[in-house]
Q: What sequence folds into this?
């Protein structure tokens, strides 16, 4: 159960960040863009990791947990971008959803690689 609390908490963090009207850092536009894309990836690396862990702890077969975590996390990436399209000063971007999904794949793959079957990591 706690594994899902962490997933829900992290989704809440992502949703909250997506609700902020303007996240520009004040840096040069290119650096600002790069930092925001890195943040997208990082947020969804963590979500992919946590989602995979939650499915894995629930005794779902490992490969099914991989697929479920990746698909549900990528779906959330899409809904997050859709949500941003309603926030003043933000826009939803299919490219950002793809970048988020790459983060999901990295997070799921990292957990898969770094943990063995039955790991509590």
A:
């Amino acid at each position: 159960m706690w594994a899902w609390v962490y997933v829900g908490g992290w989704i809440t963090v992502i949703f909250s960040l997506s609700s902020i009207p303007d996240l520009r850092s004040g840096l040069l536009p290119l650096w600002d863009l790069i930092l925001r894309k890195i943040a997208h990836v990082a947020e969804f690396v963590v979500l992919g990791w946590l989602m995979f862990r939650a499915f894995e702890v629930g005794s779902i077969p490992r490969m099914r947990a991989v697929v479920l975590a990746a698909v549900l996390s990528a779906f959330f990436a899409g809904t997050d971008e859709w949500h941003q399209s309603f926030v003043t000063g933000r826009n939803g971007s299919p490219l950002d959803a793809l970048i988020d999904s790459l983060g999901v794949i990295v997070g799921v793959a990292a957990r898969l690689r770094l943990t063995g079957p039955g790991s509590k990591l």
Summary: The chain has a mean pLDDT of 88. The radius of gyration is 15 Å.
